[in-house]
Each structure stands twice: as structure tokens, then as C-alpha cells.
Write a structure and sequence with these properties.
The complex is a heterodimer of chains A (about 575) and B (about 425).
Chain A lengths: L17 H9 L1 H23 L5 H11 L4 H5 L5 H11 L5 H15 L4 H16 L4 H14 L5 H15 L4 H14 L5 H6 L1 H8 L4 H4 L2 H9 L4 H16 L4 H9 L1 H25 L4 H8 L2 H5 L4 H15 L5 H6 L6 H21 L4 H9 L1 H8 L1 H16 L4 H18 L1 H16 L4 H18 L1 H7 L1 H8 L4 H15 L4 H15 L5 H14 L5 H14 L7 H16 L2
Chain B lengths: L16 H15 L4 E7 L15 E6 L5 E6 L3 E7 L5 E8 L4 E3 L4 E3 L5 E4 L7 E6 L4 E9 L6 E10 L7 E6 L5 E6 L2 E6 L2 E10 L12 E6 L6 E6 L3 E6 L11 E4 L10 H5 L3 E4 L5 E5 L3 E6 L8 E4 L8 H6 L9 E3 L5 E5 L4 E6 L5 E5 L24 E4 L5 E6 L2 E7 L7
Antiparallel strand pairs in B: 1-30, 2-3, 3-4, 4-5, 6-7, 8-9, 9-10, 10-11, 12-13, 13-14, 14-15, 16-17, 17-18, 18-19, 20-21, 21-22, 22-23, 24-25, 25-26, 26-27, 28-29, 29-30
Classes of the chains: A mainly alpha (about 575), B mainly beta (about 425).
Chain lengths: ~575, ~425
């Protein structure tokens, strides 16, 4: 809904209708371009300020708009940026977290454009003001801005910023402490050693906070601190926190440890990992809460890659075996053991891992089996196919016939990958039947996927292969009794045309289109016309002139069905353009 | 007599928190006599018309965390907010329509606009937030003053609507101390929400049986611990209170504690009906729970599950009348109860517009009648005839001062504690 001609651009701001006010905000840039900088500052900005207690979605749009770079120009230059700052400062005080976060993001963006001389006065002071507010929401926003203001602030202000941040870590309101805990990891990389050590106490305090939602944010801060501390400091400062969180009473905190485990290992280093972190990981793999086990099991390969092989065999593998028979299907489905194969090499994989893979491949839950099949590449590189294929095939077949169509769809997605690794001969013998049967699946989505899959396989194996093995299938398909399944032939043709050269399209694929263009069912003829239209850009011009245009004019333009005529005409226009 | 007996606190060396609290309570009772007087009444007084229309009946009451605001919800879906003046009285601040009645197409029933619960957001900001709920839908409103040219205008705007998550009727909502999440409870389920996300809720308790024919227990009320973000309680129609710990697992179906008073036994046909719990509240200091059933209030120490710490009896006079109360359905009335700000006293309503303020850890009980003082007013002694149509179902206590709010049909009453006799 654009402002009508003659409307004052600012009228939208005072409308009773919220959607009009929202449009006003979203069109602010157009308004600015229309009225020019002076009027924008004098007339429009006050209107914007009046919106500051409006609904959340309007405030969100406003916070987003004002962060855009163009507004500096709209206002008439960098010297007016402070007008934006004061509006965004108000938005950063709002209770709604989404609006506050957006305001903080926009403020961060603008801060880079403020020249160094005025940064202290305009930006750093703004952040300090927010942090000293009586209300919790501005104090919360201030935490997110400290990492932006700190690098640009004078040494005196830097001290003040750090002090206010420390206060936020002890704020009586959990909301502010959460913001502080979230912001800590962004501040840590900016500090020198002396300042960093000042924040250690705050870091520790947050990690033992009463509120679960504050404690669980400590893990990412552990990573940030560890990256900047010496080995000794890691041991004394970070390690105790990680160990405490790993056995926290709240499953959510333990979950965070599990999901960040690879980062923890990376940042804390081999020594600490080997002695202290491995037991923590093992415990998480055996956690009482399924959600925690799920997170940990997805990290098995990632973590094991950073450990010594003996440790993996002794400590991790027994847990993995237990997880493969976990009660919860979510846990089994997230178990990532495939990545261990490169670590073990061929003999090791055969000895330790093969049995595990096969067990998971036979799991009763489809998602578990799909998970294994999706990660096969890591294993086949090590083991080679012959061993796997005898086990793989039954699993694939079963999934392809699963009652749930989404499972069938998922396995179909993996076929090109398998084809690539298994080779044409294997595919022909074993998998082609599967693909073709999917062309006749009762669910349209599967039929459509099958055409895409066959194209991708044709791209891998080549046109000659496709002509020999796929085209005959298309012949059969085009003669199907049910019109729905005949239609898919045309989708197949379009799809293959992407990988066939023009001459082959003309010789091998187009005949189907011609045949189906005379099908008794109008729907099929329509699709035939559409297909012709799609194919025209891929055909040789001479052919288009000699064959396509006459065909269209003779056969389709004499059709009785209106829609067929329409699409035939569209194709004809397109064809004529080629002349 | 007015002053409670001082408890024997000779074991001054005992350092347990409970002992210290109990001795402080005793001192408190001695220094603050449990005597109350009428302060205000609000509601439209219709002269002589016996109004059968219960649209204007109060259905919920709530003070905010500062006590400066009192929200009153009505059967007609209206919410009135009163604000505390310098002289401690309350004046109208604003009012708004919270819920409209809706038609549930699935069950072909009307969803009433009656406001079942009101809770204020626990943390004070420049804008105040309050949450209201009817049977199916929860709404979060923000309330703020807008500076207009003339006078500051009070604006209340809906901020978020949380709907579609309850198949059964919502009976409670409670904010978590983390300032981010809250629970909503219906007859069979409790959902955990994030206040910023209304498209998703987590079901954390579900007592629905596989076979609905086996249903014999429903959830009647619930509450979050005031300080611990992980503790919640819910009470049932069987008089059982279960405590859930959100830290233990993602689902709280397995309660971590179960509080049940197996001794209370009046026996007979009415046993089950009178043990159903109508309200459950954590004490502000987080050490106790109070549960209100038809005849008593029971105080539970969180560490002791097998019996209540104290049972406060004030409804024994109803026991001989249970038959009548059952006949006129009054036995199903759900009375609210509430603690005072320092966890020492309890307030609950009763019939004949009576209400009781009890020393939770002492023996004194004050009984008053909620009524506008007129020349004919005779004071709060037990009435001869039990009038069950006059009931104070809703009660709230100012978190910092001794001011209580009571809701009885169309009228709300504010009573304050008399301070003239306080010992120096």
C-alpha cells in the first residue's frame, strides 16, 4: 500500500491502522528519497520518534530499517548519524527481545561509520547510559554492545565499560545475566591479558549461577577463554568449569557440554583432553537423559578424531556399541560412528566397526538406517564396496519400500551418491529396478524425485548409458494405462534433456513428446505442449524450424481443447523467436 | 485474645534455616497483631436489583510484584487495573477487554471469556506486563503510560497470544523466575512456554491415561517456585501434590516428590470431594507450599512428603453441613489462598462473605466478613445461617504491605491491617 500522490508522506505514521504504520516504516527509504535530507530530518524523523511505543512488529521493522547504510545519506551526511543513534537507543530499551536484538545489531552497524573523534561522545556514552538504567531491558542491551564499543573507546572508557559489564554479570535480574553470559565470549577476544584476568571471576560466577539458563551459556565462554589462556591457566580456570558443567544437575547444561564438545577439545588441547575430558565425554554418552545422549552420540566421530586410537578403542567404542542399542530411536539415529573408519584403517574397521555399522543398518527405525547410508562415503573409502554391498542392498530395498513416503524419498536422495561409488554395472544390476519402480510410486513427490535422480545418474554415467538403459524404460512408461503415470514420461524427458546434447534430444527424446501430444487425455497433451516449450531453447534452430514449428501448427493448433491451444501457442511464439 | 502464644525457641543454638524462620515468625506475630479493618470497596452498586447476570462477577485478582498495581479479572472478559495512591487506597488506573467469547467448532461449545487467572510478569520494567487466561487462550499484555499533550494516557496493548495448546480448560498460569518462561496448566497437561515464542510449547507433564475410561484424577492447579527456576508443583483432584524438577529430564511425568496427607480422614461419601485441592502456592521464601482443600489449608515443608507440616483448620463448622453443600453444588467451590509477603500468614475466603487470615506457624486465626461497613454491620462473628451463595473465592495479598484484596461476586474489597495497637 504505497502512499497516494498528494498524501503527505508522514501521514502514514499517525494512522490508526497498524498495517499503514508498518508500511510507513518499510517505505521510509522511499520517503527519504522523495523529500530530501532537510525535510527528512525536520519532518519525518519526529514522526518516527512518535512511533516508539508502538507494536512490536512496527518497532522491529524500524530497528531493521535504521541500521541500513543508506540512511546516512538520507539524513544528509555523517554529522547527522546521532539522530539515528537516539532512536535506536530508545529501541534498545524496549522489553521485547527481538526488537532489542535488532536495535543492538543496527547500532553495531552504524557504530563503524561514526568517526573516531565523535565515537566516544556519541556511541560509548550511549552504551554506558544503557548499562546504568534503572530498568533491566536497557541493561540487557548494553551487554550486547560492549564488544562493539570497547575497541573504539578511550582507555578510561574501556575501564568503565568493563566495570559495567562485571556489574551486569551480577545483576539481580536473570535476563541481564543471560545477556552478559552471551556477550562474554565476544568480549574475551578483544581483551589484553590483564583485563581478561579481571573477568575470570565473573566467568566463574556465571558458571555457578542459580538459573539454569545462565549456567548453560558458560560452555561457549569456556571455549573463548581457553583460546586465550596458557596451559596452566586453562587447567586452573577453564577445566574446573567444564568438569562441573559436565556433571551439572540440569540436563540442559550437560546437553550444551555435549553439543560443544569438539570445540572444547580443540580449545583445551590434547593434554587436558586426554587426562580429563575423555571421562566427561564417556559420562555424557551414558547420560540418563536421552537428549544429552543424542547430542553426545552425534559427536563421537568428531571427538574421536582428536584422540589417540587406543583411547577410542578402550573408552569410546564400548559406549558407541551401547548407544547402537539405546532405547531411544533419536539417540540411535544421531550416532555418528561412520567417521571413525578413516581413523581405524581397513583392518581396524573390519575388526572393530563393521559389526556396528551392520547392526545399525538393520535397525527397526528408518531414520537410523538412513543415517548410516548417508555417511557411507567415509566407510567405502576405507573398506571398499564388495564387503558392503551384500549388506547394503537389502537395507536399501527395504527402505525403498517403506510405508512412509518420506522415508522412500530420503533413500531416493542417496541413490546418486551410491551410484557414483558403486559404479554403473552394480547400478544396472541392482538399483535401476528400484529407480524405475519409483517412477510409478503412488506419491507424486516420489515420482518427481525419481526423474531428478535419474537425471543425476545419467550425468554421472553418461549419455550412452542413459540411451541404453533409461530410454527403454521411458518407452514402457509412455504406454502405461493410467494417465498419471504416462504424464511422468514428459517430466522424465524434460529432466534428461538437461544432460543430453541437442542431437540426442532430437533423436531419442522428442519422439515421446510427439506421441503423447496426440494422447486422448487433454491433460497429457497440455503437458506435452509445455514440455516442447521447455525443450525449444535446447534444440538446434534448424530442427526447430523444420520439425517443431510444423508439428505445432499441424497437430496442436488444431486441437479442440482450449488449454492445449494456449500452451501450443506459447511454444510457437518461443519457437518463432529462434528464427 | 489477640496475641499469639510465643513459641518456645530455647534452642537458640540451632542454625537450621527452618528454626530461624520459625523464631522470626513468632516475633513477627507478636509485633504485628492479626487485626484488620475495611479500607475500600469497588464495584457497581445496583440498588435493590437482584442481578442474576454474573457478567460483572470477579473471577481473578492479582497484585504485581511491587504491589502498586492490582489487576481484577471479570466473568465478562474485562480486566480492571487499580493503582495504589499515597494514602494506600487504590484508584482506577485503566481497564481493557482481555478476552472475547469464542465458539469451539470442534466440540460445538462456547469458550467463555471469563478470566481464569491473571499473573504479572515478575520483573519490573519501564513497561509492565501482565498475562491473562481464559479456558483456552493465554494473552500477554503490556501496560505503559504515554505522554500526551494533555495528561499522561495509560495504554494497554496485547503483545502476544498463546493459543491452540490446550485441549482441556486452563486452570493456572505461572511465571518462572528466569523471566523467560512460563507454564500453563489444564486438567490433564502442563505446557512450558517461552514468552517470546507463541508458536511452540513443550508438554512437560501429561497425566492423560491411554484409555479415557480409566480417568480418575485431574490437575487442579500449579505453581512455579519463586526462586528456583527448575521446581514446579501441581496438585490434583485426589489431594496429591507433585513436585517436578525440570533439571532431571526433558519430561516431568516422573515427579521428583509427592506430597500427600494420608491421615486426614473425615471418611464417608464426601472424603474424596473435600480432599480435592483448589489452590496451591509456594511461599515467597521458597521453603513451603500451602494447599487449599475444602475444609483446611495445609502447609508443607518441601523436604517432608509424607505429611503436612501444619494443618490449619477453619472450616470444621461445615462438616455437619456437607450434605446440604453437596446438594447445592457448593462442595465443588474452588477457593483461592495466598501467602503474605514474608511467608508468615495465609489468607483464604469462605462462605457468608467471610475470609480468614491465619498465622501460618502460630495458632491465631482472624475471621472477617467482607462487607461495606454500615450502621448495621455487626462484625465478623459466625453467622447463624450458612449462606453459600455469598462466597469469597478470590483473594490476593499485597507483596510488601498488609493489604488484602478479596473478590465476592460483583464486588471487590480491600482490607488493611490495623496498626494502632502494634507494640513499639
Amino acid at each position: 500500500m504505497l502512499p497516494k500522490k498528494g498524501d503527505s508522506p508522514k501521514e502514514g505514521a499517525t494512522s490508526e491502522d497498524a498495517s499503514v504504520r508498518l508500511t510507513f516504516v518499510k517505505n521510509l527509504s522511499k520517503t527519504a528519497e522523495t523529500v530530501g535530507p532537510d525535510r527528512f530530518r525536520d519532518e519525518i524523523i519526529p514522526e518516527v520518534k512518535a512511533l516508539l511505543d508502538d507494536d512490536d512488529d512496527i518497532l522491529l521493522a524500524l530497528a531493521d530499517e535504521l541500521g541500513k547504510d543508506e540512511y546516512e545519506t538520507y539524513l544528509g551526511g555523517a554529522q547527522h548519524n546521532h539522530l539515528l543513534l537516539s532512536i535506536l537507543e530508545s529501541l534498545a530499551k524496549v522489553e521485547e527481545t527481538g526488537v532489542r536484538d535488532k536495535a543492538v545489531a543496527s547500532l553495531s552497524k552504524i557504530s563503524h561509520r561514526i568517526p573516531q573523534e565523535s565515537c566516544e561522545q556519541h556511541f560509548v556514552e550511549l552504551v554506558l547510559r544503557l548499562s546504568e538504567s534503572d530498568w533491566f531491558s536497557p541493561r540487557s542491551s548494553a551487554c550486547g554492545l560492549i564488544s562493539v564499543a570497547y575497541p573504539r573507546a578511550s582507555p578510561a572508557s574501556q575501564t568503565k565499560l568493563l566495570l559495567s559489564f562485571k556489574r551486569s554479570c551480577e545483576d539481580p535480574t536473570p535476563i541481564v545475566r543471560r545477556s552478559a553470559a552471551t556477550a562474554l565470549k565476544k568480549i574475551v577476544p578483544l581483551l589484553d591479558k590483564a583485563s581478561l584476568l579481571q573477568l575470570v571471576e565473573s566467568f566463574k560466577a556465571l558458571s555457578v549461577d542459580d538459573q539454569d539458563s545462565v549456567r548453560l551459556l558458560s560452555i561457549e565462554n569456556c571455549v573463548a577463554f581457553a583460546e586465550k589462556l596458557s596451559e596452566e591457566e586453562k587447567n586452573s580456570v577453564v577445566k574446573p568449569v567444564v568438569l562441573a558443567c559436565g556433571s551439572d544437575k540440569s540436563w540442559r547444561v550437560r546437553y550444551m557440554v555435549a553439543s560443544c564438545f569438539t570445540q572444547l577439545v580443540d580449545s583445551l588441547g590434547r593434554q587436558i583432553t586426554q587426562t580429563d575430558l575423555v571421562p566427561v565425554f564417556v559420562k555424557l554418552l551414558k547420560d540418563t537423559e536421552a537428549e544429552v545422549r543424542t547430542a553426545a552420540s552425534s559427536k563421537v566421530s568428531g571427538v574421536s578424531k582428536l584422540l589417540q586410537k587406543d583411547t577410542v578403542i578402550k573408552d569410546i567404542l564400548p559406549c558407541a556399541r551401547a548407544l547402537a542399542t539405546d532405547d531411544s530411536s533419536a539417540v540411535r539415529a544421531s550416532l555418528d560412528v561412520m567417521g571413525l573408519a578413516p581413523l581405524f584403517g581397513k583392518d581396524g574397521t573390519n575388526e572393530h566397526l563393521l559389526e556396528l555399522f551392520l547392526q545399525l543398518l538393520k535397525d527397526e527405525t528408518p531414520e537410523v538406517r538412513l543415517n548410516i547410508i548417508g555417511k557411507l562415503s567415509e566407510v567405502t573409502q576405507v573398506l571398499g564396496l564388495d564387503q558392503l554391498s551384500q549388506h547394503l542392498l537389502p537395507a536399501i530395498m527395504e527402505l525403498a519400500e517403506d510405508r512412509q513416503w518420506r522415508v522412500r524419498s530420503s533413500i531416493l536422495e542417496y541413490i546418486p551418491l551410491l551410484a557414483d561409488q558403486l559404479g554403473a554395472e552394480f547400478f544396472n544390476e541392482k538399483l535401476s529396478v528400484l529407480c524405475v519402480s519409483c517412477l510409478n510410486d503412488c506419491v507424486f513427490s516420489i515420482r518427481e524425485s525419481a526423474t531428478v535422480i535419474l537425471k543425476r545418474i545419467a550425468a554421472v554415467f553418461g549419455v550412452a548409458w542413459a540411451k541404453q538403459y533409461v530410454v527403454p524404460k521411458i518407452v514402457e512408461q509412455s504406454k502405461h494405462r493410467n494417465y498419471l503415470y504416462r504424464t511422468i514420461t514428459l517430466t522424465m524427458v524434460s529432466s534428461l534433456a538437461d544432460v543430453f546434447p541437442s542431437s540426442e534430444i532430437q533423436s531419442d527424446l522428442l519422439p515421446f513428446v510427439y506421441t503423447l501430444a496426440t494422447d486422448p487425455i487433454p491433460n497429457i497433451r497440455i503437458n506435452a505442449a509445455k514440455t516442447l516449450n521447455q525443450l525449444i531453447p535446447k534444440l538446434e534452430t534448424s530442427y526447430v524450424l523444420s520439425d517443431i514449428i510444423p508439428f505445432l501448427t499441424d497437430k496442436l493448433l488444431t486441437d479442440k481443447d482450449r488449454d492445449v491451444l494456449y500452451f501450443a501457442n506459447v511454444a510457437l511464439q518461443n519457437a518463432r523467436k529462434k528464427q | 485474645h489477640r496475641y499469639p502464644q510465643m513459641s518456645n525457641v530455647s534452642e537458640a543454638s540451632s542454625s537450621s534455616a527452618l528454626d530461624q524462620f520459625l523464631s522470626e515468625s513468632s516475633a513477627y506475630y507478636a509485633n504485628t497483631p492479626n487485626e484488620w479493618e475495611f479500607s475500600q470497596m469497588f464495584g457497581e452498586e445496583e440498588d435493590n436489583t437482584e442481578s442474576n447476570d454474573n457478567d460483572n462477577w470477579i473471577s481473578s485478582l492479582a497484585f504485581d510484584s511491587s504491589g502498586r498495581f492490582l489487576a481484577v479479572g471479570y466473568n465478562c472478559g474485562q480486566v480492571v487495573v487499580l493503582t495504589q495512591q499515597e494514602d494506600q487506597t487504590y484508584q482506577l488506573y485503566t481497564e481493557f477487554k482481555s478476552h472475547d467469547s469464542e465458539f469451539d467448532f470442534l466440540t460445538s461449545t462456547e469458550i467463555e471469556e471469563k478470566i481464569n487467572t491473571i499473573k504479572w510478569y515478575p520483573y519490573e520494567g519501564a513497561t509492565r506486563h501482565l498475562m491473562t487466561s481464559n479456558d483456552k487462550t493465554i494473552k500477554l499484555f503490556r501496560m505503559f503510560e504515554r505522554d500526551n499533550d494533555a495528561a499522561p494516557e495509560v495504554v494497554v496493548k496485547p503483545k502476544k497470544v498463546f493459543e491452540g495448546a490446550h485441549a482441556y480448560n486452563i486452570n493456572s498460569i505461572a511465571f518462572n523466575s528466569d523471566g523467560e518462561t512460563f507454564i500453563s496448566t489444564d486438567d490433564l497437561r502442563i505446557n512450558l512456554w517461552n514468552i517470546n515464542i507463541n508458536k511452540e510449547a513443550f508438554g512437560i507433564v501429561d497425566i492423560k491415561p491411554e484409555n479415557m475410561d480409566e480417568l480418575n484424577e485431574v490437575i487442579t492447579c500449579s505453581d512455579f517456585h519463586p526462586k528456583s527456576c527448575n521446581i514446579l508443583v501441581y496438585a490434583t483432584s485426589k489431594g496429591i501434590i507433585r513436585m517436578g524438577d525440570l533439571r532431571d529430564s526433558a519430561l516431568c511425568d516422573h515427579h521428583s516428590k509427592q506430597f500427600e496427607d494420608t491421615e486426614s480422614d473425615i471418611g464417608g461419601f464426601f472424603q474424596e470431594l473435600v480432599t480435592t485441592i483448589s489452590d496451591v502456592k509456594f511461599s515467597p521464601n521458597g521453603m513451603f507450599i500451602v494447599s487449599r482443600d475444602y475444609l483446611t489449608m495445609k502447609i508443607w515443608d518441601l523436604r517432608m512428603e509424607n505429611r503436612p507440616y501444619r494443618v490449619v483448620k477453619f472450616h470444621d463448622h461445615l462438616i455437619p453441613k456437607l450434605c446440604d453443600l453437596y446438594e447445592n453444588d457448593s462442595i465443588f467451590d474452588k477457593f483461592e489462598c495466598t501467602w503474605n509477603g514474608n511467608s508468615t500468614r495465609l489468607l483464604t475466603g469462605s462462605y457468608n462473605n467471610n475470609f480468614y487470615i491465619c498465622d501460618a506457624f502460630g495458632s491465631h486465626i482472624t475471621q472477617m466478613m467482607a462487607a461495606k461497613p454500615t450502621n448495621l454491620y455487626r462484625g465478623g462473628n459466625q453467622q447463624q445461617h450458612l449462606d453459600a451463595t455469598l462466597k469469597v473465592l478470590h483473594a490476593a495479598w499485597h507483596p510488601q504491605h498488609d493489604i488484602v484484596a478479596l473478590g465476592a461476586k460483583d464486588f471487590g474489597y480491600l482490607y488493611v491491617r490495623k496498626t494502632e495497637n502494634d507494640p513499639r
